[in-house]
Amino acid sequence: MEFAIALLSVSPAELSALGWTFADRKRFLDQFLASGRAAQDVDPEHLRQMPIEIAVLSRDIDCLQRFALRELPKAASSAAMIDRVLLALDHATRIQHASKQRKHDHA
Q: Do 10 and 18 touch, CB atoms closer than 8 A?
């Protein structure tokens, strides 16, 4: 949820610097809120140990990584949460690259 709050705190100038529009931010928020709804049934004591799973479009992964590195540390209170988000985005990047490689190999 801190990630979503951090997204909301980004000013229009910061959005522009990230190369985002308001529509991009809304799409990211929708994706994070969907992930949050899935976590509602988890015992709060176990929530911090759960891996973060986010379904995002491949074109959004790089944008979210830039945001996580530039803006998230300003707004998030937990370094562990930042690390978990960065790990999830790194994992998504590896999946994206592997998928592109498979498509290239089959072409």
A: yes
